[in-house]
């Protein structure tokens, strides 16, 4: 059972930082102060949840999530700007994607407003864990799952929506560019499956191949489509883009790749830069023939791909400061960190005073 809301931080104006070696931050679990928990009975709607001290949840061994994988997650980040503001990046988009996944997995879902309010509460309650500007971000992880017991028949009697926060640095540590293995045996998603939503079941089934690739010295894995095994889909947890001349191509959203929020921003930014962007089927041959390749995601941001290895043959691509990936990374992080004007209206500032009053933090 979630603990009570008693040991909440009493003041969000406390500017002190948590005792973290920010320069050593990677992308891993870090226990912070508080988390958000809301519950919902079958046939009802989610009501406002509560901020409680971070703790383990008590869960039925017969719960739908443990037995049948009924769960979805979302990840987004909070950023501290040089002038002391706290920003979120398109939290409504995570809320909408969670709704689409909840429909697919037969779960009720918090509304967009509830989701965004939960994000703000978790950020404010863990404010001292937001890294100093440019030294990392506060990653918000929400999980929606069937918490009620189910053995044979559904629906499930109870659902839980929870959100916690971890300070994070870069997801990939290969600064010079990723070296990918193109996986030609295991598949990540299949037509009609759940590849297009952020189901928790999309990830661990491919750990076997990611682990094998890492043991062989690769940074990550690029998956092919299950129907033909001829077209590129996405990496373990990021979308892929290829660049040739003035044309940028990325696999189309067809139900087997995740509709990434960073992917969507990159398509807009790249068009603004004057490139032609194609969302289409991308055969492996087109990728091997590209000048530049990069991947995108909330955790990955924009990361250059230095090489891919397909059937033991390695192909290299352009890397460095002059790449489109470098320009996109700089532009996106400048917007996220409030260093440049956000012409697209993507950032949401957490107004301290207003939120303090509203949330009684
Ligand atoms: C994210 O980018 O938020 C993801 O879901 C990737 C995860 C493996 C960290």
UniProtKB/TrEMBL annotation:
Keywords: Aminotransferase, Pyridoxal phosphate, Transferase. Its cofactor is pyridoxal 5'-phosphate. It comes from the Eukaryota. The modification N6-(pyridoxal phosphate)lysine is found at residue 198. Pfam families: Aminotran_4. One of its GO terms (biological process) is branched-chain amino acid metabolic process. GO terms for molecular function: branched-chain-amino-acid transaminase activity. The keyword Transferase applies. CDD domains: BCAT_beta_family. InterPro entries: Aminotrans_IV, Aminotransferase-like, B_amino_transII, BCAT-like_C, BCAT-like_N, BCAT_family. Belongs to the class-IV pyridoxal-phosphate-dependent aminotransferase family. This is Methionine aminotransferase BCAT4. It comes from Raphanus sativus (Radish). The lineage of its organism: Eukaryota, Viridiplantae, Streptophyta, Embryophyta, Tracheophyta.
């Amino acid at each position: 059972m979630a603990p009570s809301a008693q040991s909440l931080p009493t003041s969000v104006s406390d500017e002190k930082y948590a005792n973290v070696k920010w320069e050593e931050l990677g992308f891993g679990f870090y226990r912070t102060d508080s988390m958000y928990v809301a519950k919902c009975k079958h046939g009802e709607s989610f009501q406002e949840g509560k901020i409680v001290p971070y703790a383990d949840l008590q869960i039925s061994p017969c719960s739908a999530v443990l037995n049948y994988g009924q769960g979805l997650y979302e990840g987004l980040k909070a950023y501290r700007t040089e002038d002391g503001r706290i920003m979120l990046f398109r939290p409504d988009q995570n809320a909408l994607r969670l709704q689409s996944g909840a429909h697919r997995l037969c779960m009720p879902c918090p509304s967009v407003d509830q989701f965004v309010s939960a994000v703000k509460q978790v950020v404010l309650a863990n404010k001292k864990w937001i890294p100093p500007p440019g030294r990392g971000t506060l990653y918000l992880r929400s999980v929606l799952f069937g918490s009620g017991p189910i053995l044979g028949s559904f629906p499930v009697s109870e659902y839980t929506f929870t959100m916690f926060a971890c300070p994070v640095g870069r997801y990939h540590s290969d600064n010079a560019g990723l070296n990918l293995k193109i996986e030609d045996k295991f598949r990540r998603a299949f037509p009609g499956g759940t590849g297009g939503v952020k189901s928790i079941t999309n990830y661990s089934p491919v750990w076997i191949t990611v682990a094998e690739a890492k043991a062989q010295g690769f940074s990550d894995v690029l998956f092919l489509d299950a129907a033909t095994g001829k077209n590129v889909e996405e990496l373990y947890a990021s979308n892929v883009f290829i660049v040739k001349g003035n044309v940028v191509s990325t696999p189309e959203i067809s139900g087997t790749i995740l509709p990434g929020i960073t992917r969507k921003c990159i398509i807009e930014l790249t068009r603004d830069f004057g490139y032609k962007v194609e969302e289409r089927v991308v055969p492996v041959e087109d990728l091997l023939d590209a000048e530049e390749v990069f991947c995108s995601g909330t955790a990955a941001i924009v990361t250059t791909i230095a090489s891919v290895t397909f059937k033991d043959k390695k192909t290299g691509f352009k890397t460095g400061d002059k790449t489109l990936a470098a320009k996109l990374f700089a532009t996106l992080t400048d917007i996220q960190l409030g260093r440049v004007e956000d012409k697209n209206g993507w950032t949401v500032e957490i107004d301290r005073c207003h939120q303090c009053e509203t949330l009684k933090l």
